[in-house]
Automatic annotation (TrEMBL):
It comes from Hartmannibacter diazotrophicus. One of its GO terms (cellular component) is ATP-binding cassette (ABC) transporter complex. Residues 34-317 form the ABC-type glycine betaine transport system substrate-binding domain. CDD domains: PBP2_HisX_like. This is Glycine betaine transporter periplasmic subunit.
Length: 339
């Protein structure tokens, strides 16, 4: 059926209803239209994007599409092009100034704090290593002992495991490595290649009870499965230094710094805020605690589940959590779709 023919039938139906004193609404008047959702490539963000896709589509009639996206390119695209419409789990510390500016100008909006407990970032060592080396309590302590953290390809130097390319934490870890004179102390930065590579390096170390030092964050299934100890960065958080250098790619002279509490928000565009209606209202209520996320991520890891699998498992097994985010009508539609 052509769009013209469809439009003709719809117009005739509306006019017929009007002539009888009753205006007939289109069948999907409550629908929120098309919405694009950034599907970022770490587990908690991926499963949340699928949860949003299913809830928006099944509960609110949206034409919800997942699009690939990492933090930096997604936030940049949203600020410059107004797309995608939703970044479900945006770790915004590295982009706070530019995001706040976009929000002040009405181009983007913080819908909710997606992780109500915030994220926890830092440099970590395995618990068994911390217990065997109580003298290593901080990053400066670790920097004095490259021999305790032999690199996998060259044991004569120490290793600090970095974030995957494209993540904001890669820039931060690189700058903190330089600030703590890692190279001068006999360390190298190890490129893990991907989120799976970073996770695998921790799992491998644990299986062999080997040392490990590098960046990681919570909530994650890895930190739920493998006990890790976060090292003190040796200095307090300096926001001015963070904004001016720590989070800036290729900063010439970074200084030692600590991570702030990681604020993790759902960011949406002006277009979707104005067009989404009840679907946007859902995003303003959709926030969950780290233990809930850790539990779900652990199930996904144990079952080699995809983000879609995890979302469906969560929607089937945790209605006590997600029904608080949606309208009763939407909840019934979503439950029916999950049967």
């Amino acid at each position: 059926m052509t769009r013209f023919f469809q439009a003709t039938i719809l117009a005739g139906t509306v006019l017929a209803g009007a002539s009888s004193g009753m205006l007939v609404q289109p069948a999907h008047a409550e629908d929120c239209g098309r919405v694009t959702i950034a599907n970022m490539n770490w587990a908690s963000a991926e499963v949340l994007s699928w949860i949003d896709q299913i809830i928006l589509e099944k509960g609110y009639g949206c034409d919800a599409e997942l699009v690939p996206g990492d933090t930096q390119p997604t936030i940049t695209s949203m600020m410059e092009k107004g797309e995608p419409d939703v970044a479900p789990e945006a770790w915004i510390n590295s982009y706070r100034e530019s995001l706040d500016k976009a929000v002040a100008e009405g181009r983007l909006f913080y819908a909710s704090e997606s992780l109500s407990d915030g994220g926890d970032e830092g440099w970590w060592v395995p618990k068994y290593f911390a217990e065997a080396h109580p003298e290593i309590k901080s990053v400066p302590d670790a920097m004095q002992h490259p021999e305790l953290f032999p690199a996998p390809e060259d044991p004569s130097v120490g290793a600090v495991y970095n974030c995957p390319a494209g993540w904001g934490c890669q820039t931060i870890t690189t700058n903190l490595f330089k600030a703590n004179k890692g190279k001068d102390h006999g360390f190298i930065l190890v490129d893990t290649g991907s989120a799976a590579g970073l996770d695998g390096s921790i799992a491998k170390a644990y299986e062999r009870e080997q040392p490990w030092l590098g960046y990681y964050w919570a909530p994650t299934s890895i930190l739920g499965k493998y006990e890790m100890v976060k090292l003190d960065m040796g200095v307090p958080h300096d926001k001015a230094e963070w904004d001016a250098c720590t989070s800036v790619t290729d900063c010439a002279d970074p200084k030692p710094n600590d991570f702030a509490k990681s604020e993790v928000f759902t960011v949406v565009t002006k277009r979707f805020k104005e067009a989404g209606g009840p679907a946007y209202d859902y995003l303003t209520k959709r926030s969950w605690h780290n233990p809930t996320v850790n539990k779900l991520l652990a199930w996904m890891a144990d079952n080699q589940a995809t983000g879609e699998d995890g979302a469906k498992y969560f929607l089937k097994n945790s209605p006590d959590v997600w029904t608080q985010w949606v309208s009763p009508e939407a909840a019934e539609k979503i439950k029916a779709a999950m049967m």
